[in-house]
Amino acid sequence: MAIFSVYVVNKAGGLIYQLDHYAPRADSEKTFSYPLDLVLRLHDERVVVAFGQRDGIRVGHAVLAINGAEVNGRFTADGKDVLEFLSNPANYPVSIRFGRHRLSSNEKLMLASMFHSLFAIGSQLSPEVGSSGIEMLETDTFKLHCFQTLTGIKFMVLADPRQAGIDSLLRKIYEIYSDFALKNPFYSLEMPIRCELFDQNLKLALEVAEKAGPFGPGS
Predict the structure, then answer these.
(1) Topology of domain 27-99, CATH
(2) H or E element at residue 15
(3) pLDDT (tens digit, 9 = 90+) per residue, 12-29?
(4) Of 59, 60, 56, 58, which Cα lies nearest the Cα of 29?
(5) pTM summary value
(6) Whole-Å CA distances, 43 to 61, 101, 200
C-alpha cells in the first residue's frame, strides 16, 4: 500500500502545493536492433508507443531515455530529434527506456484546475442541496480523495486503492496546513505554500499513514 501524491488547491482553482510521495516504477529498458519493432509517434510533444507491446513496454508509454541519457519531450539530452535519431540505422543497436511520462509543472497546474471545475459541477448536479462535491474518484490502480474546507481550500490525496485511513490523513493534513502555513507570518493566503515545517510534517504524516493507517486521538 502507498500514498502517491498530495495536492492543495485554493478556492479559485489554483494549485498552491504539490508533493510526489511515491511513484511506482514501471519503466522498461531494452536494447533494439534496426529496424525498430515498435511504432512510435509524436503526441503532446512526447514520443510515445503507438503500436506494438513487448517485455513490459505498452502502448502509450513514452521514450524516457536513449543509451542512458534522459529524453526531454521529443529531444535527446544533446538536442537531437528522437524520431530522426531512431530512424537512422547507423545509431543501432540502441538502448531505449520506456515508461509512463512524468507530469510537468504546467500539466499539474492544469489538472488541478480541471478537478476544481469537476468538483463544482458535481456539487451542482447533486439532487441534494448543499452537496460537498466530489469526495472520491476510484480507478483500478488508485483512488483520489478530496476534502474541502469551509473556506474553499481543497486537499487531495492520490493513494493505492487498498490504503486505509485516508479520511483521517486528510484531516491531519488540514491541521498541518493550519499550524505551519496559516500561522507562518511570511505566508500569504491563496499563494503557493513554501514552508519547510509544512513539508517536514506533511511527509511525516504520510509515512505514519502508510504504516499505521488511521490516525488516533492526539496524533
Answers:
(1) Pdz3 Domain (2.30.42)
(2) strand 15-20
(3) 999 999 998 876 566 788
(4) 56
(5) 0.73
(6) 11, 11, 37
